[in-house]
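go over both lines:
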Amino acid sequence: MTEYQNTRRQPARKTEKPMTRRERRRLLRLTVSGVLLVLVVAVKLLMPDVMGQYREKILHLMGENTDFVAAFSAVGRAFSGQGGIRDTLEDAYVAVFGEKEPQEAAAPAQTEAQIFSGVYGPENLPEEVKLEQQVLGFAYGAPLQGTVTSGFGYRIHPISQTDLFHYGVDLDAPEGSAIHAFARGTVAVVGQSSTLGNYVTVDHPGGFSTLYAHCRSVTASAGQTVRQGDLLAEVGQTGSATGPHLHFELHRGREYINPIYYVA
């Protein structure tokens, strides 16, 4: 069916049915969520430390499962004339607040952790591993500027060629590059092992700690107080390594946390 019957006669204009009270309420909730999203983006860009402190409360207000991309795509279709108001409201409402009734055939949406680390179920994820992003509560920064060559999660180990869980991320950098403290804290251990090579660990506030491995040399000393960005070591390839890089881990107590959120 074409948009025009001929070049002279204009098509009959569709008239939208007036919005119901329920639809108006959905639109209001979508608008509030959109305003919150804009505020979160602004705070994230301008005041990252504040964002870290209040992230959990903001996520609670907005809903952690909210698909804002789908929501604003629906609104965009309405403004471009590709969809009616009623259809747009339905799409946006579902994107922001979920399906009105459970649908058995619907596949679960991927979480941010699954996108970064692969899809793991409880049955094959190590007990001490946390994929979800954690609120640190202090300022932090990447220990070096390098490309992530191996992420957090299961992988084929480059030396043993077996499927093993990788408890940190590998950052590629030239040999001798400076490795900086991820955040303020106290140097806990300076050591050497056949697997990690030369390594150093730093304790941070809130029970968090970081590990820096395969170093060519470690310049920090155990017991030393460091600030974010202070020099700790140099990139190397000691221990089980196939080339110069930094193996970086983030812990909270006995738990391993995915570092990709904080270094990428």
